[in-house]
Design goal:
alpha+beta, D-amino Acid Aminotransferase, Chain A, domain 1, D-amino Acid Aminotransferase, Chain A, domain 2, 2 domains, eight-stranded mixed beta sheet, six-stranded antiparallel beta sheet, 27% helix, binds pyridoxal-5'-phosphate
Length: 289
Amino acid sequence: MVGADGGPAVLGVLGVGVVDPSTPVIRADDPGVTRGDGCFEGCRLQVGPDGIGIIDKLDAHLARMTRSAASLEIPFDEPAWRALVAETAAEWTHPGEAAVKLLLTRGPASGGGPAGFVWITPLPADYPRLRRDGLRVITLDRGVGSAAFAGAGWLLGGVKTLSYAINVAAQREGARRGADDVLFVSADGMVLEAPTGSVVWSFGRTLHTTPTGASGILAGTTQRLLFERAAAAGWRTADTRATLDELHSADVVWLVSSVRGPVDVVELDGKARTRLPAVDAEIRRLCGF
Ligand code: PLP
């Protein structure tokens, strides 16, 4: 089946099942499109030579989507989604990696309940190069304080909503300035997260990441898995509020996300970083990449 950009795609629709990928699935009066009122997940699918596909950390993604939907007060039928994901993934048979998006909207204002779909496409074309060469990253001011989300549930901190226009605008700004990706910094100068990834850094055998909660950042499933496995492998792990100066002095800095995996930062705000291939290889392996 062929997706919008001419590449292969598989589409599964909530309450319907697998359909032709050109099938319209969202109504014009759905606040999911008119106001970004919905949530999503992005996962990696790996298909072995036998044609059998496995989605990395599916339980963690479904658990986070359950929490996102609850924060938005949108019903989320977990067993129905699990079945739809399995049915849709079974239709994708290209060996290797693919990207899976689960997307839930509030549904048509005229009624009918939530709308949702599972959308599978190839791995983005630039990921192999970025994984190989590492990331040139610039920092951009997110314009909010590092504790702006404390006690303000309506700001939807940590919720993976569809309102990602700021995140993609930041990535465009990064591209305009010749960077591969962006790292958001709070108005008071603290390291936050990337537009579509968590930030992890190492000093010796300690891995650090930004605390969730008041910072409003998303709790990354890849960062969480990495910290669990790293702790079992003898690393210390810590949630650390860091300034940019502290980040510059780290041994290795990674941007970490489900589909691209952990990729080390080779340049931060124009300053070259020395790559540590042995440490980097260990972190990638712990994440399953
Ligand atoms: N932070 C943001 C804002 C994200 O959008 C993402 C993933 O897309 C992440 C962090 C990393 O989360 P995960 O590792 O679960 O993919």
